[in-house]
């Protein structure tokens, strides 16, 4: 049964469920045949002769049920991801999205399916890709990002995308930022540091534009000396 197509992630949910339905039909036939054989085994006083087959059928039933559950979970994951894709860049809210994807990962890891099968590995990799992508989105959506910083990102991904109301999250997802995650974080950190410097400079400028210097006559001459109040002088040293 391990060769059936529903163990492969690229089969897709619809085809996988159709294949699982076929297997369920085969199981029903096996059970009917086993019941006949059980009657004959008991008749010849060897009921144990059929027990191995009954156990194996039970294991197959359980396995099919687990794979059906896995594909139902895959369907939920893929549906959620597709919903994220059509979000506009401006309306993307990464906080709830990250929380939802993390829950999907936890649910997947608690499922008692064969964790070496391709279908399980496939959806786990897709979930992990989103968990790596969403923090990058959060960083890129920081108000500190300026057009010059976006130009650095465009250069890294070799794409001239435009940040406007028409930009969809899918457009950013397709850039495969996970492959240059470190570079993206570096650009975002640079933007945040520059934003701090800009804010500091604005604060300094706003203070000094209103500061008045005082004039004090130099002793024994007509020279007027500039002076600052003690409080402003302390601010000068800080700035």
Tell me what you see in this structure:
This protein is mainly alpha-helical and 239 residues long. The chain has two domains: 5-208; 211-239, no CATH class. It contains eight helices and two strands. A two-stranded antiparallel sheet has the order 1-2. A hairpin with a 6-residue loop joins strand 1 (214-217) and strand 2. Helix 5 (147-157) packs antiparallel against helix 7 (181-208). The radius of gyration is 33 Å and the shape is rod-shaped. It starts with 12 loop residues before the first helix and ends with a helix. The mean pLDDT is 92.
Give the overall average pLDDT.
92
State the order of secondary-structure elements, H for helix, E for strand: HHHHHHHEEH
Major beta sheet, specifics? 2 strands, antiparallel
Helix content: 55-70%
In the sheet with the most strands, the strands line up as: 1-2
Number of domains: 2
Q: How much of the residues is beta strand, in percent?
A: under 5%
Cα separation of the termini: 74 Å
Structural class: mainly alpha
Low-confidence stretches: none
| Rg (C-alpha, Å) | 33 Å
């Amino acid at each position: 049964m391990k060769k059936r197509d529903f163990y492969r992630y690229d089969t897709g949910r619809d085809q996988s469920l159709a294949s699982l339905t076929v297997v369920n039909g085969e199981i029903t036939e096996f059970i009917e045949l086993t019941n006949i054989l059980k009657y004959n085994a008991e008749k010849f006083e060897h009921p144990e002769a059929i027990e191995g087959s009954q156990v194996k059928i039970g294991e197959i039933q359980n396995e099919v049920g687990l794979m059906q559950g896995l594909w139902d979970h895959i369907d939920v994951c893929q549906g959620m991801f597709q919903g994220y894709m059509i979000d506009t860049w401006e309306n993307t809210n990464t906080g709830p999205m990250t929380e939802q994807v993390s829950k999907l990962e936890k649910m997947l890891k608690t499922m008692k399916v064969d964790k070496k099968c391709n279908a399980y590995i496939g959806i786990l990799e897709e979930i992990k890709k989103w968990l790596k992508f969403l923090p990058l989105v959060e960083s890129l959506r920081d108000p500190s990002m300026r057009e010059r910083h976006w130009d650095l990102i465009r250069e890294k991904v070799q794409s001239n995308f435009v940040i406007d109301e028409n930009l969809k999250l899918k457009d950013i997802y397709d850039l495969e930022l996970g492959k240059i995650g470190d570079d993206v974080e570096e650009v975002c950190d640079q933007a945040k540091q520059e934003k701090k410097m800009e804010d500091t400079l604005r604060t300094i400028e706003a203070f000094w534009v209103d500061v008045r210097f005082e004039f004090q006559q130099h002793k024994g001459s007509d020279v007027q000396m500039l002076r600052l109040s003690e409080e402003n002088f302390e601010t000068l040293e800080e700035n």
